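Lab manual, section 2.4: Encoding a predicted structure.

Procedure: take the sequence of the chain (204 residues), apply the prediction step described in section 2.3, and record the output as structure tokens. A sample record is shown.
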Amino acid sequence: MSLLSKVTAKPWEHAGEMEGLHGGYRAGGSAGRTGLYMFLGVITSMFLLFSISYQLRASFPDWMAVTEPGILWFNTGILLLTSISLQLAVYVSRRGAAGPMRNYLFTGVILTLVFLAGQLVAWGQLVEAGLYAKANPANAFFYLLTGVHGLHLIGGLWFLGSAAKRAVKSADDEALPLRVSLCATYWHYLLLVWALLFYLLLNS
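Recorded output:
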């Protein structure tokens, strides 16, 4: 390489060559993870504020604790299975097993839909028991916490479904393992959030 070439070289354009990876993919992976972690930080702040408000409001005399529907235990188990399924998808994607990866991704989609349906059943059971949101602050918080958590899962389903479609169309896509990994991380996080919310609801 000539002296002029060394002086005018742009090392960031050859980052992938130096590390044995495609530079764009590597940069995209770093940006994707950073974006996800920033988003999770925002969600954490929001749920933390909700939890603090919940505990403060529970100290008022008009608070009447809600008897949580038993189906919430079933829903929790379903969400745990979803998280496990997506982690298995990450495991096999790193080994190039396209078939099992697709199966685990679609299993994750289906289980998430089952969880959301189960949450709607829980809402229906409360309504049938006359536990409306306006009737009691505890009722309102139950609908709020479970509803906001469900909305985040619905939003995640768009990305998970996109990853599953890409797996069907092109299992050799270099970006696919990263997408699967980010989806799994997001689901693990929402499982943890749900576990903490469920604990909060059970102990108030």
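Check your result against the sample. The two ends are 71 Å apart (CA to CA).
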